[in-house]
């Protein structure tokens, strides 16, 4: 699991508790903050003054949310990607449709999670698929208290292959388990791998494991639906589309550099 990085440490002094090691912790949105005196924070959370305790619990909640967002693996480039700042001005009609489908999926994730409903984001390079995939993941973490994880097809295959080494730190079972349990898994760059039977089987196992557990999966690919079937196999695509899992189409020219 990815944890917030400690950017810096310093010896600080608290008027009540004396010296302590202060830590500057990585923030998902870039505004790193010093944690302050841990004993003061503990005392505040358990204060008999409800206003003090509430403020301290809010700080604790914000820190946990920050940790959950960072552990999602959403790349720094896409941490600012939200449903609200996705631009629909270059191809307003189809882009608005894609945004609406992703927003509906994110806002009703509690319902979709119960049904194990997955989603496919398919289409041209540079059309904002990763932006919206990461935006959905961030939304379900922030607003549904869900655990989401972003990864790529190549990263999954690389991690599985790494287990074949005699010095491997993880087993193949452990790799698949880490991909099985997030409430939402976003798999990007489907189709950029070599397309071998081994790769197809690895990705099918990830998708099928989650399908059997009613765990939603979002796949992102530059392929169309026919190309995706060739890449992943019919069985995997059928599981992704089961129960009405939508295929959101991004059929307009790249806006990379403009979006």
UniProtKB/TrEMBL annotation:
Stretches assigned to the IstB-like ATP-binding domain: 118-236
An MF annotation (GO) of this entry: ATP binding
The keyword Cytoplasm belongs to this UniProt entry's keyword annotation: no
Gene Ontology process terms (BP): DNA replication
Keywords: ATP-binding, Nucleotide-binding
SUPFAM superfamilies named among the record's database cross-references: P-loop containing nucleoside triphosphate hydrolases
A family per Pfam: IstB_IS21
Keyword flag Transport: no
Protein's recorded name: ATP-binding protein
Organism from which the protein derives: Pseudomonas trivialis
Lineage: Bacteria, Pseudomonadati, Pseudomonadota, Gammaproteobacteria, Pseudomonadales
């Amino acid at each position: 699991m990815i944890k917030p990085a400690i950017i810096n440490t310093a010896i600080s002094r608290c008027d009540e508790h004396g010296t302590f090691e202060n830590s500057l912790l990585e923030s998902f949105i870039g505004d790193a903050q010093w944690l302050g005196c841990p004993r003061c924070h503990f005392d505040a959370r358990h204060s008999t003054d409800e206003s003090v305790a509430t403020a301290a619990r809010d700080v604790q909640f914000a820190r946990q949310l920050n940790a959950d967002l960072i552990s999602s693996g959403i790349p720094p480039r896409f941490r600012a990607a939200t449903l609200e700042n996705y631009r629909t001005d270059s191809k307003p009609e189809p882009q608005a449709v894609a945004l609406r489908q992703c927003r509906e999926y994110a806002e009703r994730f509690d319902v979709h999670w119960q049904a194990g409903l997955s989603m496919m984001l398919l289409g041209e390079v540079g059309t904002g698929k990763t932006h919206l995939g990461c935006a959905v993941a961030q939304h379900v973490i922030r607003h549904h208290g869900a655990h989401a994880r972003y990864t790529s097809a190549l990263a999954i295959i690389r991690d599985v292959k790494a287990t074949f080494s005699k010095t491997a730190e993880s087993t193949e079972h452990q790799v698949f388990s880490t991909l099985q349990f997030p409430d939402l898994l976003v798999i990007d760059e489907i189709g950029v791998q070599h397309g071998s039977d081994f790769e197809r089987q690895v990705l099918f196992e990830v998708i099928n494991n989650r399908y059997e557990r009613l765990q939603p999966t979002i796949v992102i690919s530059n392929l169309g639906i026919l190309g995706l079937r060739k890449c992943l196999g019919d069985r995997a695509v059928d599981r992704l589309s089961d129960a009405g899992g939508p295929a959101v189409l991004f059929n307009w020219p790249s806006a990379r550099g403009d979006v």
